[in-house]
Amino acid sequence: MFPLDPRTIERIAAIVVDTGGHYERKGWQLEQLFSAAGWVDPPEYDGSPRVPWVVEQLTERSTDRSAIERFLCRICDPLEYDEGKPAADVFCQIINEKLQPERLAITYISGRPVLGELTDDGGEPMFVQPPNLDQRLRGLIESKTTVDVLVKRAKEADICASSGAHTLAIIGIGSFVEGMLLALLIERDREIRENGFPAGKNGKHVTPQRAGLELLINTARSKNWIQFVAADFMHRVRDYRNFVHPGKELAELPDFDQESVRLCWAPVHVVLNDLEERLTRVGG
């Protein structure tokens, strides 16, 4: 669990540097790794021994769970390696061996690495509300009122899940994502803020007030704020969110459970990681 034990940090640093190995990283490559993980003010390599240097960087930010989480996921990201998934799998297996005592594990959701907490029976990692959500949203969204509403909505989704109201929890997760993307697109895109979304079926702009989750996901993807697989999986959550309509639920009888809720939180982790990696932090 977080913060990671100092010995775990040491083991991860040794894996990342891979001294003398096939995937050995030079100093400049370590800089790139931290930058690709979306770290704010990523460190510059100072020429000192690489493993202790990586340990120092991870230790300095050990309480910043989102930064450490993105770093661990980037180590296991197919985008990080010329060989793609085969190389990422090698690192994922080794990293997970070192994370197992921490009750954590990297798994892939639609091809993207996500950090989850291991269940008591040692089964597949489970996914809940992203950690430090309030702090992470405040780094992306300027409006404090909007962040307060989004955090409240995420908490309410958790309350529903813990009470057995799984369908309402999933609806809440979809609503949370919709609010987050809408706030970001309005704050960061003047054209959308002034004229709306240029995506109407009749050729007319769609006002922000009438923009649905499908349009928001597609727009964020078109801006390269989120990757294809993140958008693809989030569209599945969008479809589940549509069970807010009783007619759809009666027609399909989804029978959601706690695992369904966890699977819907998983792509939220991916989307949030993508946004933090690709967007400038508020005030940054």
Brief digest:
This protein has 284 residues and is mainly α.
The total count of helices amounts to: 13
The geometry reads as: globular
Q: Let me know the largest β-sheet.
A: 2 strands, antiparallel
Question: Would you report the number of β strands?
Answer: 2
Uncertain regions spanning at least 5 consecutive residues: none
Order of helices and strands: HHHHHEEHHHHHHHH
End-to-end distance, in Å? 29 Å
- As a percent range, the share of strand residues is under 5%
The portion of residues assigned to helices is: 55-70%
**Rg result:** 20 Å
Oligomer status: single chain
Strand arrangement across the biggest beta sheet: 1-2
Let me know the average pLDDT. Answer: 89
Structural class: mainly alpha
Q: Can you describe what's shown?
A:
- The mean pLDDT is about 90.
- Helix 1 packs antiparallel against helix 5, helix 10 runs antiparallel to helix 11 and helix 11 packs across helix 13.
- A hairpin with a 2-residue loop joins strand 1 and strand 2.
- About 60% of the residues lie in helices and about 5% in strands.
- By secondary structure, the protein is mainly alpha-helical.
- It is built from 13 helices and two strands.
- It is globular and about 60 Å long.
- Strands 1-2 form a two-stranded antiparallel ribbon.
- The chain starts with 5 loop residues before the first helix and ends in a 6-residue tail after the last helix.
- The longest helix has 23 residues.
- About 35% of the residues are buried.
